[in-house]
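Following up on my earlier thread - several people asked me to post the actual chain instead of describing it. Fair enough. Here it is, all 218 residues.
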Amino acid sequence: MNRPMLARIAPFALYMAFLAVEQVARTWGGDFDARWLYPVKVGVVALALWHFRGEYRELLVRPALLAVIVSILLGVLVFVLWINLDRGWLNLGGAAGYDPRTPTGGLNWTLVAFRLAGAALVVPLMEELFWRSFLLRWIERQDFPSVAAAEVGLRAILISSLLFGVEHSLWFAGILAGLAYAWLYRKYNNLWAPIAAHASTNLILGLWVLHDGAWQFW
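Reply from S.P.:
Thanks for posting it. Predicted structure:
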C-alpha cells in the first residue's frame, strides 16, 4: 500500500475499529461508560489526519465561494432527507444512538461538545478523504492520485455511493448523501465542496438531535 492510499485509509480504518471497540464495551464493559470512547476515537483519528497532512495536497486548493454556498445548501437538503428516510425497510436498525444525557436527565456538555466537534469537523474530513478522494477515484483508476475529480465517471460514482450508503443503517439516505457529495466533488473538482456539505449535514443533524432528543440519529 503506497503512502497516498494509506493516508486516506488509515484514519477511516481507525474510526471503524473504534466502532467495534465501542460495541464490545457496551456489551461487556460492565459499569464502564462507553460514551467516553467517542472523544478518544475522534482524537485518535484527528491525530492520524494530522500525521498524514502532507499527503492531502488537494486540500490546499481553496474552493470558489459559489461552490461553498451550493455545498452548504446541498448539505441542508441531505439533512432533511436523512431525518425523513428512517422508516420501515429504509432503516436497517442498529444501536440506540449516542445519548449524552446524565442520570438526572440533563445534558453532559463535555460529551455534547466532543460529539458535535467530531461529527462536524473530524468525520467529514476523514470520510471525504476515504470515500471521495480515495475510493471514488480508485474505482475510476487504481492510480487514483492522477485522477482529477472532474474525470470521474458514473460507474465510480454509483459504486462508491452504494458502498457509502450501506455503511449506514439509513442505507437509502446514505446512498443519496453519497451521490450528492460525489456530485459536488466532480462538479467543482475540489474536495472542500463535499467536506463542506458533509459538515453542514452533520452539524445541523447534531443540533436537531439535541433539540428533539432523537438520539437514534446519532
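The chain has seven helices and no strands. That should answer part of your original question.
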